[in-house]
Amino acid sequence: MAQSRPDLFKQLADRGEDVVGRISDMPAAQRIVDAGMQLKARVDEMQKKMRGLDDLERRVKALEKKVAELSGGPAKRSTAKRSTAKRTTAQAKKKPAA
Predict the structure, then answer these.
(1) How far is CA 83 from the centre of its chain?
(2) Is residue 40 in a domain?
(3) Greatest Cα pair distance in the chain
(4) Does residue 72 come out as left (phi exceeding 0), alpha (psi in the -120 to 50 range) or beta?
């Protein structure tokens, strides 16, 4: 049994090399490999940009704090809701009761 295991692994390795050799000759497979490499490059670039966002967030927080100090208090944000309903003249002017 111990002798058959290395033979099995050797056969699998040989078959794997054959398959890889055949795939590398196929044009469609080469396009897939190229697309995968481009994807990897794009993901690496995106990761670098995402790492830079932490620094930007810290800088924005510091700037917001400075603006709040210079304006004399915490920054105020408008949270009032505005009505989007259209007013008609009938609603604006009430008829007197007769």
Answers:
(1) 35
(2) yes
(3) 113
(4) left
* Residue range of the domain that includes 39: 27-69
Residue 77, amino acid: R
Q: What average pLDDT does range 15-42 have in this prediction?
A: 87
Tally of structural domains, the chain: 1
Q: 23 and 29 in contact (C-beta within 8 Å)?
A: yes
Whether pTM exceeds 0.85: no
Q: Is the dihedral of CA 35, 38, 40, 45 positive or negative?
A: negative
User: How would DSSP label each residue in 24-79?
Assistant: HH-HHHHHHHHHHHHHHHHHHHHHHHHHHHHHHHHHHHHHHHHHHHHHTSSPP---
The one-letter amino acid code at 25 reads D
Quick one: average pLDDT of 90-97? 55
State pLDDT tens for residues 39-83. 999 999 999 989 889 889 999 999 999 999 999 865 555 555 555
Location of structure tokens 């304006």: 71
- Is residue 84 in a domain? no
